[in-house]
Structure formats: structure tokens, C-alpha cells
Amino acid sequence: MNNSLISRFPHLRQDFAASLVVFLVALPLCVGVAVASGVPAELGLVTGIVGGLVTGLMRGSSLQVSGPAAGLTVLVFEAVKEFGLPVLGAVVLVTGLLQILMGVLKLGRYFRAISVSVVEGMLAGIGLVLIAGQLYPALAAKAPDSGLGKMAGLPGAFLDALGDGKALASLALCAGTIAVLALWKHAPAKLRTLPGPLAAVGLATLATLVLSLPVATVEVKGLLGAIQPPPLSAFADLAGVGVIGTVVAFTLIASAESLFSAAAVDRLHDGPRTGYDKELVAQGAGNALCGLLGALPMTAVIVRSAANVQAGARTKASRVLHGVWLLLFAALLPGVLAYIPIPALAGILVYSGAKLVPVGALAVLWREHRGEALILGVTAVSIVAVSMFEGVLIGLALAIVKTAWEASHVRMEVVDKGAGPIEAYLSGNATFLRLPKILDSLESLPQDRPVRLNLSGLHHLDHACRTALENWAERHSAAGTEPVQVTKPDEPARATAA
């Protein structure tokens, strides 16, 4: 690199080196995510290219890298199976436009308010379905459609594989890939300059060629052959309830995953902080273009982003250059994809899926915040048992209920001096969620004694509680005692007669 170029771009040397690392990490992941999503492998590369050349050039987060993500694999697979590949392009396009709109309306920052337990539960559920789903291609078998079906069918698939040489060869290759990924951090430092995913796929490909293993490999169509913009007829399907639900799920999950990734990447470096609304616009622009090209949806991907930071990237040039390398590979060397064994890609995704399941964090969460651990677990199980969209909605509903319950703290203090009126003081937030507790305490007071109910300590009194307290005061006063005296917030005591 000449001196004038270096003076104009002082960090170009670091960014150039980092871009090569990110490219080598992204290449097998783009292909693996595409194959697992049930679309041509080249479409994963298209999304990676757009993530580098379009989203990478835009403002937002300077160092995080975007592309097809394992977190959306399950949802994309379901959408392609149910609606078809042309409709997927329309869904991704609308998702991108919604993200741009949310960014323009400055809604990006509000995604940080989503319960972390729901997001972790969502990723855990995706991880479990991803692991179960990818074990079938590892066994050279066809995966069932539903998440529960995938889980339930695994014992039978393993038993069937025992007498099948092709299935055993495929399983061995997948297991070997996972072993390389897990042990790569212990390899000599010089070897570790090669990213683990690329090393694992490279070794699996070499083993397949040398040993002539009878395993399935990636089908290649060529970059231009794989790109199929959605026809106008595909946009007519957007009126369907199922497609609308898929658009909402894509938008929420892709946006949340990207912005959570941005927050994580910001903790890894000392450079400029993420502009969340600008990042949402950048993600939306990338997804809109991916939709027009009929490619996969994109999110910011923490694995690639962390590799970018750790490789010494200083500016957005590294992620743009990684998109250039992906484009050159897809244009000049697409035939190389045909040698990659599918069980090796399955191994990469099984390993990625396992990292999405926070087993250690869940144990700590259970000891310290059992309510949050319950939300995480229920969200994950719901995604496996029902579907991605419904599982996330169930998790969000649980988080809202838990927050409302915790926010409605109410305390009742009763002062009974043995003679004269009983003093009952309520403080905190009186909502319908705490109404049974309040009424139980009031109804336990003696019926033959006058009561002074002091509500001046309440910060909030909802309509349901107000009505219930008035009804209780009337019932108590009707027993022949003095009318209940109620002191409302900022009001003097007044008698409530039957």
C-alpha cells in the first residue's frame, strides 16, 4: 500500500487484515445458513455481500458485521416451506422498509427495553430447534416439519443410522467438524490465524475427497442463477394473516438481534458508540435490497462482529472489504461450493445452535432471579413446541405480567389500640393484581369496630381497586358500625356511608 493511500486512510492496513479474517469466518456461515434455511447456497452469499457493501457503508455501528444469521434460520425455513421462495423476497423487502420506518421514527432505542430474558429465551429456542433440525442432514435423513417432531424423531433417526453406511459416514463427518470447532482454541497460535469454521469445513471437504465418503454436498446454481427477484404476484400474498405474522416476526427478531449485537460490540472496543436509530435504518436498507434480490434476511451477527474487532478493525472499511471478498468469491469461484459436504455445514450450525442455549447463565439466573429464568425457559419451550412467532409473543406477555406484578407492590399496616377506630394504612401501588391480598386483609378486620382507611400513601390506585374498596366500605358500614372513614391521596378523611 503506497504512502499517500495510507495517509488518507491511516487504519487501512488493520482494516484490510481484519476484512480477510471476517471473510473467512463469514464464508462457511453464509453457505451453512442458506442450506439450513432451504434456499440455494448462493443466496446466503448474496445477503453477506449486501451486508458488507450496503449496510457496511451506512452509519450506525462502525464495527459490527451483518449477514445471514443462524438466529433466523428456523423462521426462514418455515416461511419458505409454507409460502415459497418468491414470497420470502417480498417478506424480507417489507421487513426492511419497516425497519427503515422505525429508524426514521427513532424507535431503535426502544428495542433495548425488550426483556433480556425474552431475547435469550428466543435464542435458546432457536438454538434447540436448530440443533435438532441439523442433526437430520448429519444423519442423511429428512427432518420432520415441527420443532416437537424434530425432537421426538431423533432417537429413531439415530437407530436407523446404525445399519446405514452412508448415514454413519455423514454423522462421523458432522461429529468431526464439531470436534474441530470445539478444540480449535487449543490449536497452535499459527494455526489459529485461520478461523475455526473455515478450518473445520476445509478439513471435512478434504476428508470427503481423499476418502471418497458417500455424503451429500452443496448444490450449485451460480450467483446469477440463484438471484430471483420476487414477482408482483408474491406481493399479493402479503395480505394473508400468516404472511403478516411472518413479517412482524422477521422485523422484531432481526431488529432486536441487531441492536443487542450492537450493544455487545460496543463493549468490545473503545471507538464510536452505536447510533441505534441509524443502525436500524442501515439494517432496513440492507434487508430491503436483499428482498428485491430474493435473498435471505440479514441481521448483525455477533460472531462475525467479534471476529472483526478482535482482528484489529478500526473503521467500517473492514466490513465493506469483507463484502468485496464475498462478491469476488461468489463471482469467480462458485464451483468450490459444490465440494463442501452438507454434514460439515450441519456441524457448524449444531455448534452455533449450542452456543445460543445459555445453560450456564440459566443456572445462575435461577439462583438469583427465578422469575426471569422462568420467562427464559417458557419462551424457549414455546418456540420448540409451537413456533417462533407465538413463542416470542408468549415470552413478551410473561415479561409484561411479571413487570406489572412487581410494579404493583402494596403494603397494608393495621393499627389497633384495643379501643376506638381501627386504623388501616395502604401504601405503594394498588392495582387489580394485588386486589385479592388487599381485600383479604380488610375483610379480616372486626365487623363491630369502626375503621379509618388511609389511602394517602398510595402512589397509584386503579379503577378496579377503587371500586372494590368503595364496595367493601359500604358492606362494613352496613353492619351497624360507624361509616368507614376514607382518606384518599391529598384529601381529608370523609365518611363513606352505606
TrEMBL record:
GO CC terms: membrane
All copies of domain SLC26A/SulP transporter, residue ranges: 12-378
GO BP of this protein: transmembrane transport
Keyword field contains GTP-binding: no
Biased composition (Basic and acidic residues): 488-498
Bilayer topology: Multi-pass membrane protein
Transmembrane region(s): 16-36, 43-63, 83-105, 117-136, 167-184, 196-218, 238-260, 324-342, 348-366, 373-401
Subcellular location: Membrane
Pfam families: Sulfate_transp
Sorted UniProt keywords: Membrane, Transmembrane, Transmembrane helix
Region (Disordered): 476-498
Protein known as: Sulfate transporter
Organism name: Streptomyces cellostaticus
Taxonomic lineage of the native organism: Bacteria, Bacillati, Actinomycetota, Actinomycetes, Kitasatosporales
